[in-house]
């Protein structure tokens, strides 16, 4: 089968089209013919081994220090089941599915085996394959922060920084679904767009520093890690939470300290460790009811993965970048 492989860490050009062996499903697995995947903001970091100092050691242990242990990247996908293992009960050949590969990656390829009980489910019927692939990472991450950690509820005042990114666009829509009053922070070109997906108020970060206002929030969700902890903590209501997807040692220590001793909390998490199959089912349901629509900024064919990585690395994508595999 065709796949995009990388044998060493480096620039986007280390990603190369190659012929690799087609996987064979075990008895409890299905073989998915991948139709679409994505380039998430994490993918270029994995490709280049560009991690914050704190993460280099654990990431190196898991994925290889000198060269990548998993030569095929890609964490989210959609596709069609081509073969089912003899013990598989819940899926049939021809089912349209979407999911998350887990830390083995492998979605930059024509085929991927997935355990029946893995993070795999029937894809939302109203979404294209590209949209279905792109709904997974951003939305599940936003769900962990807003729902599982933030305990978002109707009427909460929520500020979402990076509201135009993958996690941000999902977070705005999910917060709206839960009845929150949303302030989105983005740049001038995305102001109308962020309003259109559900933000009640939009702050243009090129013109205004939201930390200079007197507004107070139940949740401040910095989806891109570009805010200052002290300033944001001052904007929280009592029992408010400041949540970050990108964090360093200081944030981790502050999160432990506030967890133990303070009313206002700092939340940091590696959200993928909290993802469950029920979460995918929830995403499918709310997507089909029209509450959540993944935003696809650009789409590239698999062969143009280098261009897709270059684009994502700029840090200005709006929502997601899809990769069309079939
Ligand atoms: N901890 C976790 O579990 C977890 C989970 C998922 C993702 N992440 C990490 O979270 C980060 C965000 O992921 P993502 O996929 O959402 O990123 P993304 O889609 O690449 O974010 C790009 C967006 O950020 C906006 N942006 C850039 N600078 C900004 C600023 N100063 N203020 C406000 N918005 C700004 C850009 O808008 P403009 O072009 O208008 O600037 C663009 O729309 C990544 O670093 C990713 O690795 C962590």
Notes on the protein architecture:
The chain is α/β, with parallel strands linked by helices and 326 residues long. It folds into 2 domains: 2-135 and 294-324, Quinone Oxidoreductase, Chain A, domain 1, CATH 3.90.180.10; 138-272, NAD(P)-binding Rossmann-like Domain (Rossmann fold, 3-Layer(aba) Sandwich), CATH 3.40.50.720. The chain has 10 helices and 15 strands. Strands 3, 4, 5, 6, 7, 14 and 15 form a 7-stranded mixed β-sheet that branches. Strands 10-9-8-11-12-13 form a 6-stranded parallel β-sheet. It has a two-stranded antiparallel sheet with strand order 1-2. Strand 9, helix 6 and strand 10 (201-204) form a beta-alpha-beta unit. Bound molecules: NADP nicotinamide-adenine-dinucleotide phosphate. The site of NADP nicotinamide-adenine-dinucleotide phosphate has 29 residues, from helix 4, helix 5 and strand 9.
Task: Identify the notable features of this structure and list them briefly.
single chain; 326 residues; alpha/beta; Quinone Oxidoreductase, Chain A, domain 1; Rossmann fold; 2 domains; seven-stranded mixed beta sheet; six-stranded parallel beta sheet; 10 helices; 29% helix; globular; binds NADP nicotinamide-adenine-dinucleotide phosphate
Layout: helices, strands, pairs:
Layout: E1 2-5, E2 16-19, E3 29-38, H1 42-48, H2 53-63, E4 76-84, E5 96-100, E6 111-115, E7 120-122, H3 129-134, H4 136-149, E8 157-161, H5 166-177, E9 181-186, H6 191-196, E10 201-204, E11 217-222, H7 229-233, E12 236-244, H8 249-261, E13 265-268, H9 277-288, E14 296-301, H10 305-313, E15 320-324
Parallel strand pairs: 8-9, 8-11, 9-10, 11-12, 12-13, 14-15
Antiparallel strand pairs: 1-2, 3-4, 3-6, 3-15, 4-5, 5-7
Helix pairs in contact: 4-5
This protein binds NADP nicotinamide-adenine-dinucleotide phosphate.
NADP nicotinamide-adenine-dinucleotide phosphate (NAP) binds at residues 40-42, 138, 141, 161-162, 164-168, 185-187, 190, 205, 223-224, 226, 245-246, 269-271, 315-318.
